[in-house]
């Protein structure tokens, strides 16, 4: 890997399954590295959070990312789910900061806009667009796709959206949800 | 400290202030060790969770507890608060399990029953009873008192509530909220 590439780790936290996605980015170029799902094990909450942290640490140790990205969550219709997701997210962020990784946060809306071009995209659309943007042979599993989407979103944010207009690497995006603003191609 | 004492760390997690309380327990006897409040610092959530974890780790390294106790939280009337508290709690549990501490969980109702004798106790009553049970010269700060209450609750649970009837160490409890059931003094 060239020194100029930056390795990003996206995390989609959950108490049962936590998705992860690793990509390398350099200006306009994104390269897929790895993705998958951490199956969280254990009976009680402390045990599950430990399993979640251990899983994330294993991914960090294996792929050595330089920055991390996690979805900002909002309150769920079900308050109990909100609490559980909050705890999982707290543990996931803990795992990342304990590895001294910068943690970037984006809303679900920002992630969907980044990969599909609009904020109302369904899970399947996110999976498809992630596969296209990273030239994957098949759609990644949903949690892994969300984690990759987080990494892609941050990758785009890093290089400034405007750069999208110059390069074919993110060309898939230009077909949907992009528009010209002040003479530059920007995401909707 | 005698080898037969077990050191318990209670944690009352929060994103601004996290209370902690350390006690030594041996059968009927509880000894106060330390308590205080971790002032959580930092701007964004990841930074604050890191600060929270570092604070808990400092307490663990200083007092070397053998077990830990944390309040089970329930959904708040404010969903956003529920999410924030969930994240703080997730990070706090993470900090504890990463130090290989067993984490015991009790509901607010159980904590209040354990120290005050009934589940509707107000914050001030918890502070007063914690001070009495541990023979403190003054009431501890509210977050620290809740953390000590968690530790006391687990201490009582460990030795079985029935032992309370034999010993003066927890005698403060017998004046309020205790009743005789099947010939034994039990907490309400």
Automatic annotation (TrEMBL), chains A, B:
It catalyses: Endonucleolytic cleavage at a junction such as a reciprocal single-stranded crossover between two homologous DNA duplexes (Holliday junction). It is found in: Cytoplasm. GO terms for cellular component: cytoplasm; Holliday junction resolvase complex. Its cofactor is Mg(2+). Its main location: cytoplasm. The active site is at 12, 71, 143. GO terms for biological process: DNA recombination; DNA repair. Transmembrane segments: none annotated. Mg(2+) 2 binds at residue 71. Keywords: Cytoplasm, DNA damage, DNA recombination, DNA repair, DNA-binding, Endonuclease, Hydrolase, Magnesium, Metal-binding, Nuclease. CDD domains: RuvC (cd16962). Gene3D superfamilies: Ribonuclease H-like superfamily/Ribonuclease H. GO terms for molecular function: crossover junction DNA endonuclease activity; DNA binding; magnesium ion binding. Mg(2+) 1 binds at residues 12, 143. Binds 2 Mg(2+) ion per subunit. The RuvA-RuvB-RuvC complex processes Holliday junction (HJ) DNA during genetic recombination and DNA repair. Endonuclease that resolves HJ intermediates. Cleaves cruciform DNA by making single-stranded nicks across the HJ at symmetrical positions within the homologous arms, yielding a 5'-phosphate and a 3'-hydroxyl group; requires a central core of homology in the junction. The consensus cleavage sequence is 5'-(A/T)TT(C/G)-3'. Cleavage occurs on the 3'-side of the TT dinucleotide at the point of strand exchange. Belongs to the RuvC family. Homodimer which binds Holliday junction (HJ) DNA. The HJ becomes 2-fold symmetrical on binding to RuvC with unstacked arms; it has a different conformation from HJ DNA in complex with RuvA. In the full resolvosome a probable DNA-RuvA(4)-RuvB(12)-RuvC(2) complex forms which resolves the HJ. This is Crossover junction endodeoxyribonuclease RuvC.
């Amino acid at each position: 890997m060239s020194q100029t590439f930056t390795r990003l780790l996206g995390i989609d936290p959950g108490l049962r399954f936590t998705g992860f996605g690793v990509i390398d980015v350099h200006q306009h170029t994104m390269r897929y590295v790895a993705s998958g799902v951490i199956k969280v094990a254990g009976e009680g909450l402390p045990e599950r959070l430990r399993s979640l942290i251990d899983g994330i640490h294993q991914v960090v140790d294996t792929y050595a990312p330089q920055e991390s990205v996690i979805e900002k969550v909002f309150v769920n219709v079900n308050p109990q789910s909100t609490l559980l997701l909050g705890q999982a997210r707290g543990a996931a962020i803990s795992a990342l900061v304990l590895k001294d990784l910068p943690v970037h946060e984006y809303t679900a809306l920002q992630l969907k806009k980044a990969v599909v071009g609009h904020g109302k995209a369904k899970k399947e659309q996110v999976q498809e667009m992630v596969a296209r943007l990273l030239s994957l042979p098949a759609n990644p599993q949903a949690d892994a796709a969300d984690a990759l989407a987080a990494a892609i979103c941050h990758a785009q944010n890093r290089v400034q959206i405007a750069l999208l207009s110059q390069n074919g690497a993110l060309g898939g995006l230009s077909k949907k949800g992009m528009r010209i603003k002040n003479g530059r191609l920007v995401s909707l």
